[in-house]
């Protein structure tokens, strides 16, 4: 009996110890779990912070990109340069540390280099390309020389380069907007930036993934350096291609790089009156224009060069707003007013829906003469042949700045007309005055652009219309008021 009690006591003691051990173990497990959750994963945290810092640094570097970080390669030739250099002078900025070259096959006779003329980039003589085959029937073998402007520009071996920008001698750049557009991208990555043709057949024949050279091409520095190493070997595989830009595109495709589309680059494969294209510009900043010599002056009653100077003068006041389209409705007269800032104001004597007002008016002629030549890769609306049924157009007269940084642009009719004027007709208007604040394109606005709003203001004269451009309210719609 005594031994039985001892045995029971031992069992009770053993069970008690087990229970204590289980309780302690349970508490220890809970403690360890809580402790583990309370301490962050330092490796993961370090990686996250590093990525965030790298991203912030990249954005900071891109936003600080200046003209001194870009090298331009401009393709020209001996015969064209003496005339085309006046176009380059429009955008080449003396005293801004701009770098680059105009590439010619040889120096024009009785011509000295531009080394002492800061209003122009220096002349570089292209290398011999006779070893490369060119088999496109009816084409020009000089396309190979022009394509190699890419490698020869990189070979200039400039330091601290973030972007290489290429264009033709009749390409004009709006450099402030070029910088803003490139600032969206990390120049340390591989980027091939440009735009297509406006012409359906051109894009179909070449590629929707090809940047057309006349509009301008931007290639980030690390990509351009790699392309320069492989370019000569690559273009030997493409003797059958027509142009220089097709060769650049093909070699970048072999490197696995696709086109980043930026609609502010303009090839302008149209002829005649470019009004419709310019008056309905994309929300993206205007970066370049091409083929200006092959089209009518962009302002009436001016030469081509004077009209381009007129546009550049407006761009000096507000470069990011140039050609930006704003539409508002006059409630009293049921008119539609479309402002293409720094260029023209259109006044329709009736209300049209906003999507229709944003379409490009077919004021131009097709680039080619085939049936498909009238097909374009943008939304269009027909051009009214009767001037008395057409909307009124007021072209930029002058630009000035006022108090509080307000910018005032005045637009006037430049072409005479013989149409009936009624009490409710906008034809009685002789002048449109537009006020706005300078448009600052920060990174968010570049990545997610929004059209601004405008108001038709009470006017002190029946022959003048006053319009104010402003930021739209958060939930504000641009629509025809009942």
Automatic annotation (TrEMBL):
InterPro entries hit by this protein: DUF604 (IPR006740)
Family matches, as Pfam families: DUF604
Keywords, comma-separated and alphabetical: Membrane, Transmembrane, Transmembrane helix
Residues annotated as transmembrane: 20-39
Domain of life, source organism: Eukaryota
Name the record gives this protein: DUF604 domain-containing protein
Natural source organism: Solanum chilense
Organismal lineage: Eukaryota, Viridiplantae, Streptophyta, Embryophyta, Tracheophyta
